[in-house]
């Protein structure tokens, strides 16, 4: 499926390019824009970005596969990220992860049939002082326990 | 006790409140002096980097070439991905303008016209907060070309945010530069050092967020004042982030050299249920851990911690109580470094996986006494054999945890059922071609 940036995003790309002396340097911010527009980074997206930034599609692929925050497959509308690194682990991060898995009936890296939820086990999110935590898309939920996670998931389900 | 980085002033994050409290006066003062004077003052203040290596900031700035026909760059490291470290987000949230002012002074001192603030991709909220502060400062003419009118100088600079995308390695300075250039975040071989050959081959300085936030007060109040706070060899206040088994986790700004036990018991309210402390990691998960009975009398500054056999790192203290399974904690730490190893150097790419596998085996209760020596040997083969410090970051916690808690780990592996003789680590490495098919 062909991918084209919206007019608005093309203007944004022009602004981003002003920040850097080379076009290649804009690849990370432009990938974020594409992901916001398309939901994930497909081969077509990478080809289009390569065309705009005058680099090879392989350059873009290299960046996409190196960083964890570019998704190479569609994610749920609510992408649940559970931190299980040391500080969260000590305060119950794995219990939260188990609860999220049980509640949604899917495993890490999977997506629910209605495409609403996906789960990712993430590394330290910088919330050690407010552990344990989960992040839903871009929003942090901190100082959690199993009950609170249930409430968050419930409210997300009802929002649909 | 005076707070330098996160002062107790309500709404100081707003530009007007910051201006009413002496904001953007340090940059005016700086512009009235020569760049050498600024670097000299920062050097004399004794300010040391807060990102982990504790390098003297003024000295780093002085490495920048005075005469060059290339552009110069400043990178500000807000990648903050070290487990246990969560200090920079407090600065983005509560005192962004002091950071911006610090960046401006640093840019002036090294004569850089462009500064990139690298912030980890997960920090959407804090990126937006800093962007708002930058926009406000642009409107007031404190950043960008309008600086010429505002301050009446020839110098101006721009500050841009570069958003990371979830790679721990990009906190390493040369990987960070590759990431800004739009490449995979692989560390570069040093030398050449960034001051000679950095971003796009140009002279570059990289400083931590907290380091630069300390600069405006040094210029305003003088280096003598700063150098008298805390320990003389590592002066100033440090943002200590404390987490894990603790009653009041959070970030505490305290003078360097504060006793570790004071931070734990006096400020952070001690351990829940008054349990004993089994282990403390004093500076983020990559630093050598201390036994619970080693922490008495230890001061939190770079030199004192070095004497105690560990390091200050990012000042992220993780407290682990006696009821915790330490093998699981160490296995989790190793999982992190395995996940985050960029794969550039073989010892780290392979070794971190081995460490994780062996530690998982011990945590599952299937380890043997030989595994402990194996772990120390693998760690020793990673350390010092890699381009960047991620090798050490992965090896230190394992090597020091296993040696300092030898009795604990020995007890765990001695309970074991008998194991097959073969070494599981090596058995996991399959040859691509069946041995019989190889013709000599």
Structure characterization notes:
The complex is a heterodimer of chains A (160) and B (440). Chain A is of the alpha+beta class and 160 residues long. Chain A has 2 domains: 7-66, NADH-quinone oxidoreductase subunit E (Arc Repressor Mutant, subunit A); 78-159, 3-Layer(aba) Sandwich (Glutaredoxin). Chain A has helices at 7-17, 27-38, 43-53, 57-66, 86-90, 93-104, 146-159; strands at residues 78-83, 117-122, 134-136, 139-141. In chain A, strands 2-1-3-4 form a 4-stranded mixed β-sheet, covered by helices on one side. In chain A, helix 2 packs antiparallel against helix 3. The longest helix of chain A is centred in the C-terminal third of the chain and has 14 residues, at 146-159. The model of chain A has no long low-confidence stretch (mean pLDDT 96). Chain B folds into 3 domains: 15-227, NADH-ubiquinone oxidoreductase 51kDa subunit (Rossmann fold, 3-Layer(aba) Sandwich); 237-318, Roll (Ubiquitin-like (UB roll)); 326-427, de novo design (two linked rop proteins). Chain B contains 20 helices and 9 strands. In chain B, the strands form 2 sheets. Chain B has a 5-stranded mixed β-sheet, sandwiched between helices. A 4-stranded parallel β-sheet of chain B has the order 3-2-1-4, with helices on both faces. In chain B, strand 5 and strand 6 form a beta hairpin. Chain B is globular and about 75 Å long. Chain B starts with 14 loop residues before the first helix and ends in a 13-residue tail after the last helix. In chain B, 53% of the residues are buried. The model of chain B has no long low-confidence stretch (mean pLDDT 94). Chains A and B meet through helix 2, helix 4 and helix 5 of A and strand 3, strand 5, strand 9 and helix 15 of B.
